[in-house]
Amino acid sequence: MSDLVQDLLTAQQRLAGRSVRYNEAVARRLGVTPTDVKCLGLLIQRPHTPGELAAELELTASAVTAVVDRLERAGYVRRERSTVDRRQVAVHAVAEQAQRAIELHVPLYERLAEVVRTYDEQQLATLLDYIERCADTFGDEADRLAT
């Protein structure tokens, strides 16, 4: 393995570790857990049923209930029953509180945008391809380990 390949893999591990640390810091700032933050991120995009959350977060129904309970107590989400079928519940992000979570990420995204702007289009296309392929590989390996 070339030194450059090894350096890239080492840097990727460092990035993954720092990403986990960042997400933990966001969770602490919001007074919730990293899993709660991941759930809130999904709910900021659109309302979900508890079953959808369980599937996307790869959690059991009871674990999702605990996550939603914590987020609801903290004021970040609300449960809303369907007017058509009262058995159906959708979980919605509370806009004002969700904005607080979004604003925490603004400085990071601004700094990352500065980094991205230092690359030309061809380099960005290569980076995008690499990141997408790595994401697919991580997903495949997670699936393999889960079976």
How far apart lie the N and C ends?
A: 30 Å
Low-confidence stretches: none
* β-strand number: 2
How much helix, percentage-wise, in residues? over 70%
Alpha-carbon Rg, integer: 18 Å
Largest sheet: 2 strands, antiparallel
CATH evolutionary superfamily of the domain at 3-98: Winged helix-like DNA-binding domain superfamily/Winged helix DNA-binding domain
Going across the biggest sheet, name each strand in turn. Answer: 1-2
CATH architecture of the domain at 3-98: Orthogonal Bundle
Helix-strand string: HHHHEEHH
Number of discrete helical segments: 6
Structural category: mainly alpha
Which range does the strand content fall in? Answer: 5-15%
| CATH class assignment of the domain at 3-98 | Mainly Alpha
Mean pLDDT: 95
Given the C-alpha coordinates, what overall shape results?
Answer: globular
Annotated CATH topology of the domain at 3-98: Arc Repressor Mutant, subunit A
Written overview of the protein:
With 147 residues, the protein is mainly α. It has a domain at 3-98: Winged helix-like DNA-binding domain superfamily/Winged helix DNA-binding domain (Arc Repressor Mutant, subunit A), CATH 1.10.10. Helices cover 74% and strands 7% of the residues. It contains 6 helices and 2 strands. It has helices at residues 3-30, 34-45, 50-57, 61-73, 95-116, 121-146; strands at 77-81, 89-93. Strands 1-2 form a two-stranded antiparallel ribbon. Strand 1 and strand 2 form a beta hairpin. Helix 3 packs across helix 4. The radius of gyration is 18 Å and the shape is globular. The chain starts with a helix and ends with a helix. The model has no long low-confidence stretch (mean pLDDT 95).
